[in-house]
Design a protein that fits this description.
This protein is an all-alpha fold and 177 residues long. Helix content is 77%, strand content 0%. Helix 1 runs antiparallel to helix 2, helix 4 packs antiparallel against helix 5 and helix 6 crosses helix 7. The chain is elongated and about 70 Å long. The protein starts with a helix and ends in an 11-residue tail after the last helix.
């Protein structure tokens, strides 16, 4: 697997793929080899197969889930991001535990923040904070959520100020006549 990783670094994806396959023949379901196979496939332009390999690695070894999600997110593909979201939700529904669970929550929070879905982001940020209250990740997510919420409040406030600016200050709409 290490040799295959070196080959990938040298942009020799064909050879890396062969070496990853050799490693998998010796040790089936080896997560590092499956990830490497996915990376080689990605470099070869076989993105759908790469996506499946990355997800397979995470299913085989939940501790590499964050690596798989990072790879899917890094492609910039909407299909890959959607596959990552479905995968994360599925893992959460299967009650992932330990370090895997809060990383999944954090990924879901990040995804919701990126989509500017404040309600969903708030729910995921709370789950991260509940499971890892002192983590830097929880604090960063809270800060980003607050920034987005403040931005929305600013937009609503600016709209209200424009409305008020158009009205005559001396006129009171609720004045008794």
């Amino acid at each position: 697997v290490l040799y295959a990783r070196e080959l990938l670094a040298e942009a020799r994806a064909d050879e890396a793929l062969k070496q990853a396959q050799v490693a998998l023949a010796e040790v089936p379901n080896l997560a590092a080899a499956i990830l490497t196979r996915g990376d080689a496939l990605y470099q070869l332009g076989q993105r759908a197969q790469a996506r499946e390999a990355w997800l397979e690695a995470a299913r085989e070894a939940p501790h590499v889930t964050a690596l798989s999600l990072d790879r899917l997110e890094g492609t910039g593909s909407t299909a890959d991001r959607e596959a990552a979201r479905r995968f994360a939700q599925d893992m959460i529904e299967r009650e992932a535990t330990g370090i895997t669970s809060w990383r999944l929550y954090a990924w879901m929070a990040e995804d919701a923040l990126r989509r500017k879905d404040v309600g969903e982001a708030r729910a995921w940020v709370e789950r991260v904070a509940d499971s890892q209250p002192r983590s830097a990740t929880a604090q960063r997510l809270k800060a980003r959520l607050s920034h987005i919420e403040d931005g929305e409040r600013s937009v609503r406030s600016a709209s209200l100020m424009r409305t008020w600016a158009a009205e005559r200050l001396w006129w009171d709409a609720w004045r008794c006549t």
